[in-house]
Amino acid sequence: MDHRARLLAAVTVPPLVTAAVGLTHPPTLTFEAAHHWQMMHTVLLPVFPLLALGPWLVARRSSRVAGVVAGVLAFVYACFYTSLDVIAGITAGALKHARSEDLGVVFGVAGDLGDVGILAYAGASVVAIVVAARDTGLLRAVPGAVLVVVGTVMFWQEHVYRPWGVTAMVLLAAGWGWFAWLGRTTEVTPAAPA
Asked: DSSP 3-state helix, strand, coil percentages of the chain (rounded to 5)?
């Protein structure tokens, strides 16, 4: 498998897996749906951080500096958005399954942490889009940029609820896939040590 195909797989598989699992996301957290809600978010626990591969890998193949900036922002996303998944997904599902009624505090804290994560994801995406546009030309970058920006906004607003959260994941896969296919075929390599 060549470098471009590996990159394409790395940036498209995580959002597509998330979209597939999101198709089963209950519309609301009820007692009946609580166990599925908890298990679905547990399955996504190792997948959500992998969504950060899109902006990080696209940025780092264009520029070391952009790769570091996007990588730091992607790391912040992975930490904070994963906390949303753990709190609002796994913990809230477990509490509801245990018949707890008071989930307002849990969802409030989770939402705040998730906002930090998604804003970091948006920042990493902007860095990646800018350097990809510089490398490929603005007009060639526009389709991927539109897909990623719309997907990111929908992700922020809809998480992975169907239909719009699932659509957001498909848009992110298509956008990062566009950049992976369009961009450089070789990544920037660090300078050899002296």
From this structure: 80, 0, 20
> Taking all residues of the chain, what is their mean pLDDT, rounded to a whole number?
92
Among the listed residues 102, 146, 160, 126, the one whose alpha carbon sits nearest the alpha carbon of residue 54: 126
C-alpha 25/C-alpha 113 separation (Å) is 20
The answer, yes or no, to whether residue 70 has pLDDT greater than 50, is yes
Name the band, by pLDDT with cuts 50, 70 and 90, for residue 97. Answer: confident
Tokens of 121: 């994801």
Cα 102-104-110 angle, rounded to 5 deg: 125
The predicted-structure confidence for 105-117, as pLDDT tens digits, reads as follows 788 888 899 999 9
Alpha carbons 101 and 164: distance in angstroms, whole number: 27
Give the span between the Cα atoms of 131 and 165, in whole angstroms.
Answer: 27
Residue 92 near residue 110 (C-beta atoms within 8 A): yes
**Residue 111's Cα: distance from chain center in Å?**
16
